[in-house]
Amino acid sequence: MNQLDITPKVEQLHDLLKLIERDYMPAVLANSLGAEDMVLTDLIARYYPAIAMFTLDTGRLPQETYDLMQTVRDRYGVDIHVYFPDAAAIEDYVAQNGPNGFYQSVELRKRCCFIRKVEPLRRALAGKRAWITGMRREQAVTRDSLTISSFDVENNLQKFNPLCEWSNAEVWAYLKQHDVPYNKLHDRFYPSIGCAPCTRAVTPGEDVRSGRWWWENPESKECGLHIGKVASIK
Ligand code: SF4
């Protein structure tokens, strides 16, 4: 079988990361350790170490995600700064709604995501000039207008989605060709991985993000990290 040629797209990635390192520092990769983020982790760790990385530990991540966090640290020798939710906010939420209150309604699910993800994200982005994500346009209906670069009005910094136009096959071609570590849940039909209680395996042919918050409508399935107002420059 012919190997997928991703050379032009990798060169474009280098160009963009160089530009970010030159013109948008301090910049950070919001690293959820998904397959796309591992492409960016590999490139940034090896070629653009001035770009920082952080991850959000919601307290409900699968063990496989923590395993990968440790593997990245050991293999690349890079520090992925870990942000945690505000402990008092979590205690209040659990006292009022129970540990799994997010299954009860979209509102309670979004409130949990706000406490465990959105508020820590704001702290992680404070004082930065740019953030980088591994989002791709074809991942979900909520992402079909995604652009490579836009101004994130809500967080007041530039937002880059360098893999915006990549396909799933191209992401995996990169990981395989460069022997990049990845989350073992991907081998068990989890194409998109978030918190353990809100992520499940999908069946072949299903939407990539259909295993996330599977009990909700596709239009509401974002955690709030990526729904801020943006002004596109692409
Ligand atoms: Fe809470 Fe689920 Fe959102 Fe994680 S994905 S923050 S557990 S609602």
Based on the model shown, name its key terms.
seven-stranded mixed β-sheet; globular; PAPS_reduct_dom; APS_reductase; iron-sulfur; Rossmann fold; alpha/beta; 12% strand; PAPS/APS_Rdtase; phosphoadenylyl-sulfate reductase (thioredoxin) activity
Ordered list of secondary-structure elements with their pairings:
Blueprint: H1 7-23, E1 27-30, H2 35-47, E2 52-56, H3 63-76, E3 80-83, H4 87-97, H5 106-125, E4 130-132, E5 149-152, E6 157-160, H6 168-177, E7 230-232
Parallel strand pairs: 1-2, 1-4, 2-3, 4-6
Antiparallel strand pairs: 5-6, 5-7
Residues 58, 60, 102, 109, 112-113, 116-117, 194-195, 197-198, 223 line the site of iron/sulfur cluster.
Task: Write structural notes for this entry.
The chain is α/β, with parallel strands linked by helices. It has a single domain, classed as HUPs (Rossmann fold). The chain contains six helices and seven strands, in the order H-E-H-E-H-E-H-H-E-E-E-H-E. Helix 3 links the parallel strand 2 and strand 3. The protein is globular and about 50 Å long.
What CATH first level would be assigned?
Alpha Beta
**What's the β-strand tally?**
7
> Any ligands, ions or cofactors bound here, and which?
iron/sulfur cluster
Q: Specify the number of helices.
A: 6
State the end-to-end distance: 35 Å
Helix content range of the residues, please? 25-40%
Class derived from helix and strand content: alpha/beta
* H/E element order: HEHEHEHHEEEHE
Percent in strands: 5-15%
Q: Could you list the spans in which at least 5 consecutive residues all have pLDDT below 50?
A: none
Computed Rg: 17 Å
CATH superfamily grouping = HUPs
Mean pLDDT: 91
Taken together, the total number of domains comes to 1
Shape: globular
Described by strand count, sense and barrel closure, the largest sheet is: 7 strands, mixed
Across the major sheet, the strand order is: 3-2-1-4-6-5-7
CATH topology name: Rossmann fold
Keywords: Cytoplasm, Iron, Iron-sulfur, Metal-binding, Oxidoreductase
GO molecular function: 4 iron, 4 sulfur cluster binding; adenylyl-sulfate reductase (thioredoxin) activity; metal ion binding; phosphoadenylyl-sulfate reductase (thioredoxin) activity
Enzyme class: oxidoreductase
Subcellular location: Cytoplasm
